[in-house]
Structure formats: structure tokens, C-alpha cells
Amino acid sequence: MSIVLYGHRLSQPCRAVEILLRELDTPYTWQTIDFANGETQEPWYAERINTFETVPALVATTAQDEAGHELHLGESHAILRYLCRGAPRSASAGTWYPGDHDPVRAARIDQWLDWHHANIRRHDMFHHIMNLHLTLPMLKREIQATLLKPLQDRLRPGLARLEHQLGRNDGTDGASPYLCDDDTPSIADLAIACELHQLVAVGYRFDRFPALRRWLEALGARPHFRDVSQAISEQGRTIRAQDGNHLDLTGAFG
Description:
Layout (H helix, E strand, L loop, with lengths): L1 E6 L4 H12 L5 E4 L10 H6 L8 E5 L9 E4 L1 H11 L3 H7 L6 H16 L7 H9 L2 H32 L18 H16 L7 H11 L2 H6 L1 H13 L12
Parallel strand pairs: 1-2
Antiparallel strand pairs: 1-3, 3-4
């Protein structure tokens, strides 16, 4: 299988897909797309790569495909599922997402993936954090008060839901430390952790959610997760260095 992944490493869904490709030991070609400056809307991309005009996008060709019969796939959750179903290392792929081989566990993973879009991802803060980072000092407090504070408040119930689930499965007395009652992470863990890891990179603390914090630390320590997240970690350090105490890093989720 020949795979090209179009994305940007400051995008949390793109990082989730690239981490999974590395976890599955699946060769791929990386193509950086400058989505912030509208490259996803350029005709070569919108017409030939991903009609949704988003990242990530995956283009896959197998040895059995006839010329020109490529799979063009957008939406990170769909890509994650496809990679697990089609990965040549089926044993490894099945631990991340078993598909039809274990429909009960797959349904549990699907449940958390669907929940992710309507809850954690819906209240993504990073766009406004970047705006605060780049804007004039006189506007920073306004962005924190009018844009970031409401998102923090709306994100908190989702964090509490994760804390409840992960606290129940906190690795004690033989329990699982991951979302779906497993001893290994799934693509649901990966997708949601990539969403929240960028808040940790900026400097936010999750002291009120100890099970969630331990879960994030465990996933963040995986070599592929750490390597793919280098760009967001560097961006986080830059933001912290230039923040000027405008971000509520300790009070928001502490």
C-alpha cells in the first residue's frame, strides 16, 4: 500500500493519524498543507485531494488498484478506522481498533470517537490561544475574558466525564487505564488525547482531574506520540514564554 498523508502538525487530528501510522509501522509520505493560509481551498487540493477542504487527508493506492483508482479519504476518525482495517500488521492494528473482529469493543471505541466530536473537539481553544499569542498586548485580556473563558467553562463538563471514566479504569486492582476497558490504548484514546495534549503543551494544568492527567502523561510518553508532537510542544513553549500572564493556565482546569 502506498500512502500520502496531507496535513499540518499543529492540527490535532493530523497528529492522531500520523501517530497511528507510526504505531502500525505503516510507511507513508508526509505532505505539509498550510491550512491556516487557505491552501486547503486551492483547486489542486480541493478538487484532487479532499473535497471537504480540510486536513488531514489521506490518499492510498494498493498493488491491486488499477491505474487512477486511488482512495481519497478525509475526516480523521474515518482515516483512523480505515488504517486499522487495512494495515498489514493486523495484530497491532486490532489493538487500536478491531473492526468486525470484535464488534463489541469496536462499538465502545466508536462511542467515544463520536462523543469526542460533540464535546472535547467542539470546544477547541487553540485557535483563540494562537490569536492571543499573536495579537497586541492591549487585546490579550479581552481574548482571554470573552473567547477563552467561555470555551474553558464549556470544556470542563467533558473533562469531568473523561475523569469519571478514566478514574473508574485507573489501572488499580487490575483495572484498565484507558477509555474502553482495555490494557492498551485505542484510536479513541489517541484522538481525544491529541486534542487535549496541546493544552498541556501551552501550560494548562489538569490538577482537578488526576486520572485524566495520568492518562495524558502515559500517552504523551509513547515515543511516536512524543515525536509527532514536537511541533506543538515547541509552539507551546513559545506561547508560554511570551504569554505575559494573560492565559489562565493554573485556574482554568487546576
